[in-house]
Amino acid sequence: MATFELYRRSTIGMCLTETLDEMVQSGTLSPELAIQVLVQFDKSMTEALESQVKTKVSIKGHLHTYRFCDNVWTFILQDAMFKIDDRQENVSRVKIVACDSKLLTQ
Amino acid sequence: MATTTTTSGVYIHVIEDVVSKVREEFVNNGGPGESVLSELQGVIFFFFFVSEKIWETKMMQAGVLSGPIERSSAQRPTPGGPLTHDLNVPYEGTEEYETPTAEMLFPPTPMQTPLPTPLPGTADNSSMYNIPTGSSDYPTPGTENGSHVDVKARPSPYMQPPSPWTNPRLDVNVAYVDGRDEAERGNPNQHFTQDLFVPSTGKRKRDDSSAQYQNGGSIPQQDGASDALPMATLEGDTLCITFVGDKRVPRDFICSSSKIPQVDGPMPDPYDEMLSTPNIYSYQRPSEDFNEGRTPAPNEIQTSTPVTAQNDVIEDDEELLNEDDDDDELDDLESGEDMNTQHLVLAQFDKVTRTKSRWKCNLKDGIMHINDKDILFNKVLCFPFPQLSLELFWLTIILTLAV
């Protein structure tokens, strides 16, 4: 089953990747097992986001760059405003990476 | 476990889910064992909660949180002594969990700067790093003695790479050079140009500049390739790998500091070229649905930048190599910011549509990292609008009215 590896770039994904890298470097863990853990992380993360999260967000901003390559959209927004439930966040520059959700269901 | 909707709750759930599902692999089939699994879980929690704790502290200071987030005792296992750190202090790498340094990742080569090459005719046969370049046309004194010394005295424009896998003691060129010398004596007009240790980077122009070499004494050589030595530093909870001299510059630019005169085409300023070739495309169709797998074809792209006309003459020389097709400024910005905690949204998209200059993106199931916070979402509506198109839009209005 295909998984999206993009969640590995999140904070928790980076923590896991660093931990696994250290363990593989020290020989505690085999690389194959580390990859299995990462794949399981991809699945668990996707499932958790589908089932456990109900937040709706709205983003508005100036589109600095857009790119569509290999079914992945990459946007760079400037002066973006995030409306998250009842609060608001402003950032000067944000990168949005989005994979095609239909690929998972195929 | 009760389902929680907070970010940390979801993360904890994910960690436990992963650990429980890989437990079988760890324990059975000769895996590392339960202890390693517990250590893995503990370290992930440690890494994660250090950043969480810093976040909590900041939020408390900002008055958003009244106190630390309550977590159950099961969420902080302490698998061993080395992990019992006080989370109230910023993370400082210990010996056990220190992030790999550049020396570990990229062991230094024995020869960062090559030995000074000897005078032609004075070097012995056991010297290292024979680089057979150039031909017999060069005014190299001492050629008559038939030694292969001239070869070493002629530096390659591509300096010796400081990579660990190159063995400087292995003189692979001896046999070749000897053969070449015989050919040289017999056929002085024959040209041999071969760089056996050419490090390849993407932005180098390959030019046979050895014709311009002037011989004279010990030639100082600077290893420009070592400029890009990566350095790993830990900033907060992020491993940052930066390159010393991180702006990618064409090779000739680095080598220009050496004393070897080279005749080359006019040296364009690499940064001006990057700025003059922006990566902006404007579509002529009124409305597009980008859900099909469609990437813009080159013949449909219209770059509306008049600045490129100025660099046409310079660009002709490089057109063959297509060196500056990529927008390096943008790439550098993106890669540079990725190393620091950039605001980032990772998600899946349901639909991306565009109507003239108005984009609409329906995203789902994503993680946002903005303002040092992690926010998870189920649905996002994104309305980016390009700045440039707005100007074009107004321009169109003015032109239409004028007509």
UniProtKB/TrEMBL annotation, chain A:
Pfam families: TFIIA_gamma_C, TFIIA_gamma_N. Residues 60-101 form the Transcription initiation factor IIA gamma subunit C-terminal domain. GO terms for molecular function: RNA polymerase II general transcription initiation factor activity; TBP-class protein binding. GO terms for biological process: RNA polymerase II preinitiation complex assembly. It comes from the Eukaryota. InterPro entries: TFIIA_a-hlx (IPR009083), TFIIA_b-brl (IPR009088), TFIIA_gsu (IPR003194), TFIIA_gsu_C (IPR015871), TFIIA_gsu_N (IPR015872). CDD domains: TFIIA_gamma_C (cd10014), TFIIA_gamma_N (cd10145). Keywords: Nucleus, Transcription, Transcription regulation. SUPFAM superfamilies: Transcription factor IIA (TFIIA), alpha-helical domain (SSF47396), Transcription factor IIA (TFIIA), beta-barrel domain (SSF50784). Its main location: nucleus. The keyword Iron does not apply. It is found in: Nucleus. GO terms for cellular component: transcription factor TFIIA complex. Residues 4-49 form the Transcription initiation factor IIA gamma subunit N-terminal domain. TFIIA is a component of the transcription machinery of RNA polymerase II and plays an important role in transcriptional activation. Belongs to the TFIIA subunit 2 family. TFIIA is a heterodimer of the large unprocessed subunit 1 and a small subunit gamma. It was originally believed to be a heterotrimer of an alpha, a beta and a gamma subunit. This is Transcription initiation factor IIA subunit 2. The lineage of its organism: Eukaryota, Viridiplantae, Streptophyta, Embryophyta, Tracheophyta.
TrEMBL record, chain B:
Residues 70-89, 107-146, 182-226, 284-309 are annotated as: Disordered. Residues 123-146, 210-224, 300-309 have a biased composition (Polar residues). Keywords: Nucleus, Transcription. CDD domains: TFIIA_alpha_beta_like. Signal peptide: none annotated. Residues 107-119 have a biased composition (Pro residues). This is TF-B3 domain-containing protein. It comes from Brassica cretica.
